[in-house]
Amino acid sequence: MYFASFWDNFYYFTSMFENINRNVSKSAVFTQKELARMNELLQVKTFPKKTYLLQEGEICNFEGYINKGCVRTYYIDENGFEVTLMFSIEDWWVGDVLSFYEQKPSNFFIETLEECEVMLFNPVTKEMLLAEIPKFERVFRMMMQRSLASMVNRLVTTISKPAQEKYLEFIRKYPTIPQRVPQHYIASYLGISPEFLSKVRAKLAKK
Amino acid sequence: MYFASFWDNFYYFTSMFENINRNVSKSAVFTQKELARMNELLQVKTFPKKTYLLQEGEICNFEGYINKGCVRTYYIDENGFEVTLMFSIEDWWVGDVLSFYEQKPSNFFIETLEECEVMLFNPVTKEMLLAEIPKFERVFRMMMQRSLASMVNRLVTTISKPAQEKYLEFIRKYPTIPQRVPQHYIASYLGISPEFLSKVRAKLAKK
DNA sequence: TCAATTTCTTGTCCTAGTTCAATGGATTGA
DNA sequence: TCAATCCATTGAACTAGGACAAGAAATTGA
User: Fold this and answer.
1) A102, exposed or middle or buried, with CB in 10 Å at 0-12, 13-18, 19+?
2) Residue B103 CB-half CA count within 13 A
3) Residue B194 contacts by C-beta under 8 Å, 6 or more apart in sequence?
4) Which chain C nucleotides are covered by protein, judged by CB under 7 A?
5) CA distance B195 to B100
6) Confidence of residue A67 (pLDDT cuts 50, 70, 90)
7) Is B125 exposed, middle or buried (0-12, 13-18, 19+ CB in 10 A)?
């Protein structure tokens, strides 16, 4: 008994699933067996840089945990204007929830900006997981709550703050991202032109 | 048997719960008994115009369905700038989901703009409902999905469209609201100054 | 390795939207 | 009913940020 539990822990916290197991364990308490079942249902996939996990018009058939790498979710409006909705890095989830659940075409592009290792549920495996271990409902509900909260936050910032503050808030909140993604994508996330972002940075550098 | 079902339907679709029952039935199929149980758990409350359902700093202890009336959810940033996050009218849900679930102080104000009749869950009744009839998980998950989707939509519009288009999109999407709420609240929803909204409207009227 | 491409910077000119102030109309409430 | 407040409009002066253009720097890839 003692040995079993020791090796269980050893396995799960040294396996490739270590991170995702820790991540879901933030929302609820799971046994090793439950985590193992989840791991079994996951599909682990590696994507090279600059590949699309999802393109506009496709139905999103995954909900993915990023174990390694960095992706960008964006949207193209009627005038061809690109809006970056989010950057997702290690320990974040990606996908188009709405498209996934309602099985309808997505409006978004999801593109890797680096080589990525992603752990994926599809509608079937996710349904199985929730059916077998309902506690996972909570994990996904909290995921969505956090997304909603951060979207609201961003809307408020976008509406009420000038470009310079938006940029400072961004680098404070996501300090590692500026080193990893092209600057004009950050501009498109902040809702300002790349030229203006460059000027903002120049002004900040002078101080 | 025939009579029972007839009167059941008669009751539920002529009672004060008619609307909310129809609303939740969009996300899943419920029996009359299940709807009756939900109705039993709801607290029906009337609020006069210009009263707060929630103030910044309070913990949101409700999740409410608006049966009658109109409310505004807003946020005040560091500079005292008000951002209207949403208007909610008949057949919409109000509350601060994050504050509700995590039982932490809200950043928002929720204020009635008209006299309102609201049907409320509190954390206990909601928990009971979900425990007794897990199908309701789906209702609330879809509620949240819709909120998230509409927030994303709004962010995109806010970032990529000029004031006039934002206004036109707003009145197309929510045709009844302009008649019901002061115009400067709409400006604060759109992220533009009330003066400028007035000018936009003047220009549109000229055509 | 070096050409090709992508990204970033800087400058100039321009415009959508802001701020402030003044006026008049509409609601509210005692 | 009439004052008080709140709300919408208009105008004039200003500014944050956009669009365009051209060059420099960095990355990429064969």
Assistant:
1) middle
2) 3
3) B183, B184, B187, B188
4) 6-11, 16-21, 29
5) 36
6) very high
7) middle
Q: With the CA atoms of B122, B128, B134 and B136 taken in that order, what torsion angle do they form, in degrees rounded to the nearest 10?
A: -30
Of A85, A149, A158, the CB nearest to B98: A149
Find and list the nucleotides of strand D having atoms within 7 Å of a protein beta carbon: 6-12, 16-21
Q: Quick one: which of A91, A82, A89, A83 has its CA closest to A114?
A: A89
Q: Is A76 in CB contact (< 8 Å) with chain B?
A: no
Amino acid identity of residue B119, one-letter, is M
- The residue assigned the tokens 């979207």 is A151
CB contact under 8 A, A158 and B159: yes
User: A191 and B85: CB-CB below 8 Å?
Assistant: no
Chain B residues inside the 8 Å CB shell of A159: 83, 158, 191
Q: What is the pLDDT of residues B65-115, one digit of tens each?
A: 999 999 999 999 888 889 999 999 999 999 999 999 999 999 999 999 999
In this structure, the dihedral spanned by the alpha carbons of residues B186, B188, B193 and B197, taken in order and rounded to 10 degrees, is: -10
* Strands of the A43-47 sheet, one edge to the other: A43-47, A116-121, A63-68, A93-94
By CB neighbour count within 10 A (0-12 exposed, 13-18 middle, 19+ buried), where does A101 fall? Answer: middle
The total number of residues shown for chain B amounts to 207
Q: Please indicate whether, in this complex, the C-beta atoms of A158 and B160 are within 8 angstroms of each other.
A: no
> How buried is residue A153: exposed, middle or buried, by Cβ count under 10 Å (0-12/13-18/19+)?
middle
Q: Which of A117, A135, A203 is nearest to A165 (CA)?
A: A203
Under 8 Å between Cβ of A94 and A118? yes
Q: Which of A148, A161, A189 to mutate to test the interface with B (most CBs of B within 10 A)?
A: A148
Strand C-proximal residues of B, range 98-157, CB below 7 A, are none
Beta pairing class for A116-121 and B108-112:
unpaired
CB B43 within 8 A of CB B125: yes
**Cα nearest neighbour of B74 on chain A:** A156
The answer to whether strand D lies under 7 Å from the CB of residue B37 is no
Predicted confidence at residue A7, as pLDDT, reads 53
Give yes or no for B75 touching A (CB within 8 A). yes
Q: What's the rounded mean pLDDT across residues B41-54? A: 95
Higher pLDDT, A21 or B206: A21
What whole-number percentage of chain A has pLDDT above 70? 93
